[in-house]
């Protein structure tokens, strides 16, 4: 999966996986042991890096990337 992604940090990849799984920011934060505000910051960075405008587009792209990695 990493080869298909534009320079994401390990935490951004974990957040992307959480979004792909349909988790809320609060749930992702709990799973990763970080603050919900930190997840929001990672989501903003993900949207910028993936050139998408919203969480739904991040989830769709994550789904596509997961299929390609399989």
Structure class: mainly alpha
The mean pLDDT is 90
User: What sort of overall outline do the alpha carbons produce when their principal axes are compared?
Assistant: globular
- The amount of beta strand, in percent, is under 5%
pLDDT < 50 stretches: none
Description:
The protein is mainly α and 70 residues long. The protein is 70% helix and 0% strand. It has four helices and no strands. Helix 1 packs across helix 2 (25-32), helix 1 (10-20) crosses helix 4 and helix 2 packs across helix 3. The protein starts with 9 loop residues before the first helix and ends with a helix.
Throw out a few tags for this protein.
70 residues; mainly alpha; 4 helices
């Amino acid at each position: 999966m990493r080869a298909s992604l534009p320079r994401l940090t390990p935490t951004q990849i974990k957040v992307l996986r959480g979004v792909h799984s349909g988790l809320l920011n609060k749930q992702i934060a709990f799973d990763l042991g970080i603050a919900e505000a930190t997840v929001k910051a990672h989501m903003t960075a993900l949207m910028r890096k993936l050139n998408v405008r919203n969480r739904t587009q991040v989830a769709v792209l994550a789904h596509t990337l997961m299929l390609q990695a399989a």
